[in-house]
Specification:
Blueprint: H1 4-17, E1 23-27, H2 49-57, E2 62-67, H3 72-79, E3 90-93, H4 109-126, E4 133-137, E5 140-144, H5 151-163, E6 172-176, E7 179-183, H6 189-200, E8 204-209, H7 215-219, E9 232-236, E10 245-247, H8 250-264
Parallel strand pairs: 1-2, 1-8, 2-3, 8-9, 9-10
Antiparallel strand pairs: 4-5, 5-7, 6-7
The structure holds magnesium ion.
Magnesium ion (MG) binds at residues 28, 30-32, 210-211.
EC number: 3.1.3.12
Keywords: Hydrolase, Magnesium, Metal-binding
Pathway: Glycan biosynthesis; trehalose biosynthesis
């Protein structure tokens, strides 16, 4: 249960964040800016949400993004915000942070070396077996075993990869059906927030979210990260969270965004 004090404490934190030289304001979509509905295709932004996002996006040195588990195309359709941020100043980030408008930053030397290593280890696993192969992506390598005729061979190759290159430090493994993806850069809402923090040199990142996947976003906020002492993580609704702040409802998210826009814009808070 959120108390009035929660909202007041949250406002105080937002007032501090509003003074950041550059500010990133990020919001999850479903359950944060948009009420849950039985047909997910009919989700829409809550009343006042778009106006609040637009008001923030119109401010100087202020970057606004939606970070959703949905893919960017769907997120654009249901939020009625274009996929190209140039039109609105609002950036859409899809698939839990893995789908950005721009190409991802080049790999660091360490990441590139690690990718080379895990790629060759996956190739060594796949190569002797007809039907197994490695798919190459910019920051990951994917072992495919679906075309192996015997299920036990599929399992064995996946196990070799899971017990081998997948356990290397800095490798993020995602298991799928007869596939294993090993990435050297984590795709998560947290990683997306850090990308925007680095890209803009933001002094503060404010992030609203309601669900388990948002916890990875909250986890990268806080005073123990570079330049993030003004960060504000805000959990929407009940449930355990690592976020420092909480609001009760989507309506309170909209009110908080309006408040932030008003304070940062220098006008009297609503
Ligand atoms: Mg959500």
């Amino acid at each position: 249960m959120t108390s009035e004090t929660d909202l007041l404490t949250t406002r105080a934190a937002l007032d501090r964040a509003a003074r950041a030289a550059h500010l990133v304001v990020a919001c999850d979509f479903d359950g944060t800016l948009s009420p849950f509905v039985s047909d997910p295709e009919t989700s829409r932004l809550a009343p006042g949400a778009r106006e609040a996002l637009d008001a923030l996006a119109a401010l100087p040195a202020t970057t606004v993004l939606l970070v959703s588990g949905r893919d960017r195309t769907t997120l654009s359709r249901i939020s009625e915000i274009p996929t190209e941020s140039a039109a609105t100043g609002i950036h859409l980030v899809g698939q839990h942070g893995s789908e950005l408008e721009s190409k991802p930053a080049a790999l660091t030397e360490v990441e590139a070396a690690l990718l080379t290593e895990i790629t060759s280890r996956l190739e060594a696993i796949a190569l002797p077996h007809e039907g197994a192969f490695v798919e190459y992506k910019p920051s990951s390598a994917v072992l495919h075993v679906r075309s192996l005729p015997r299920a036990e061979d599929q399992e064995r190759l996946l196990s070799l990869a899971l017990e081998g290159p997948a356990v290397r430090d800095g490798v993020f493994a995602t298991e799928g059906k007869a596939v294993l993806e090993l990435a050297v850069r984590e795709a998560s809402k947290g990683a997306a927030l850090q990308t925007f923090r680095e890209r803009t040199g933001a002094e503060s990142v404010v992030f609203f979210g309601d669900d388990v996947t948002d916890e990875k976003g909250f986890a990268v906020l806080g005073s123990d990260h570079d330049g993030s002492a003004l960060d504000v993580g805000i959990k929407v609704g009940d449930g355990p969270t690592v976020a420092g702040y909480r609001v009760a409802s989507i309506d309170e998210v909209v009110v908080s965004l309006r408040h932030l826009a008003a304070v940062r814009g220098g006008s009297k808070p609503a």
